[in-house]
Every structure is written in C-alpha cells, then in structure tokens.
Amino acid sequence: MGAWRNAPESTAPVRGVVGRAGTGSVFDLHRWAPSPDAARFVEHFWSVSWDRRTEGPFESTVITFPAMHITREWGDDDVRHGVSLPNTLVHGVVPQVFRTTISGRGSVVGARFHTGGFTARFGRDAADLTGRVVPVDDELFGAPIVLDDDVASAGAALDSAVGAFAGEPDATYRALTPLLDRMREDATLHRVEQVMAHAPWSTRTTQRVFRRYVGVPVKWVLCRYRLQQAALEIESTPGIDFADLAVRLGWYDQAHFSNDFRAMLGWTPGEYAGRFGG
C-alpha cells in the first residue's frame, strides 16, 4: 500500500468535489496509490475523517465519477446510506450526485475502482448496483472479509484483498480502459457517435459492455465528465462566461447547458457560481 500518512489534500477546487474550498475545516481527505496488484483494478484509495460534535451536521456533495467503490465506514451515527454501522459497503455508480450528511465523529476508508474495474475483479454486473449501496457479502472476495475501524489497517487489508486476484484482467476490460480514458481526457468528444469512432466494438456491443462494466450508458458518461468540468471551471474562474463555457464543452447553447446543470445539482450555473465561484 502507498504511504497514507500524507498531509490532507489541498482545498483548491477539485474535479467532482462541490465547494472544496469550503470543506477544508469540515473533514480531512487523503488519497494514496494502490499496490501494483490492486492497481490493476483500483485507481486510488482514499479516506475521509471528521469531527462535527461542536459545529453540527454538514451536507457534503460530490459530482461522482462513473466508478464504483468499496468502503469501510464507522462513526457516531448508527445508520449511514440506509445501512447499519460499522459496515463494509459496495457503492454502485451514482446516477445523480452523491449527497451525505456528516455529523458527530466518523471515518470512511475507500477503494475507488477504475471504471470497469469492479466487474473485472469480481465478475458482477455494474448495472445491477447502479444507484445502490449494499453491504459486502461473504461471496464477493470468496470468503468473509474483516476490516478494522482504523484508516491504516482497513486500507492495507482492503488493498491486499482486492489485489489477491490470480491471472490477468479480462480482455474486455483491457479494451474498455483506453476508450474510457479518451472519454475522460478528450474535451472534443461531445457525442456518442464520436465515441463509437474510437470503440473496438459495434455500437450495440459497446452499449452492452458499458452496461455490464460501467453500469451506465455511454451518453451518461460523456455528460457526467462535461458537467464535472463545467463545475470545476465555475469554481476556478471568477466571472466565467457561461455561454462560452457551454459551447466549449459541447452544448448547443447556454439554455441546454443550464438545464442539464440544474437537473444534476439543483442549481443553475449562476447560482453555483454565487455559492462556490472563485
């Protein structure tokens, strides 16, 4: 496992984290690299810890990536995400945004899988878990997994358990990964047909692969990356031109952009800038 005892991450705007500049005093966020064995499936490990006993509850919002997580969670609250604590959980892809209220004292240690990595590691359809948070069952790792309520211990044990996979990841996952990387990094990809020009499969097969490995359609992934980038630029750029932003990120006009943005977050771009803008 990579060194986890690094300093908490900067509170500069971060892609996917809503209002990161205002959360530095709310919780401590750490990320660290997986071991080589776990890195075949896991992008990074992370932990969040908080103590809100004197400040009161805080609602945290994340514009999630199309990625699945396994977490170990504990704290003063007896129930989180509708399940009892302490617990080890699987988080499917979140269709809207991830909102959770943190209160008292608590911690979470998590593995964020590469998009498609959860299915490649465990053989389970991602679509069956989309929008769900469920306890890890005994069959997931082939035997019950025991994680301590301690960041370092839980992180190391989770890294070891995920990395304990004989053989190589399957061919579909290996072919999917570069396509997903292009979708994430290539700002010129705005439409499904553009993605299909780079896909190693037919349109029908590609959509089937996305259902099984990603849990959401190709169009959803494209839109989510654009909305993440839009929120990041609004937080980072004072006085940003929304019409220009909409065109650069592939919307037909500012109205369509505003509608999509509000549908996801509940705020218009202007309202978001007023709350979290640089």
Automatic annotation (TrEMBL):
InterPro entries: AraC_XylS_family_regulators, DUF6597, Homeodomain-like_sf, HTH_AraC. It comes from the Bacteria. SUPFAM superfamilies: Homeodomain-like. GO terms for molecular function: DNA-binding transcription factor activity; sequence-specific DNA binding. Residues 173-275 form the HTH araC/xylS-type domain. This is AraC family transcriptional regulator. Gene3D superfamilies: Homeodomain-like. The keyword Transcription regulation applies. It holds the Pfam family DUF6597. It comes from Mycobacterium aquaticum. Keywords: DNA-binding, Transcription, Transcription regulation.
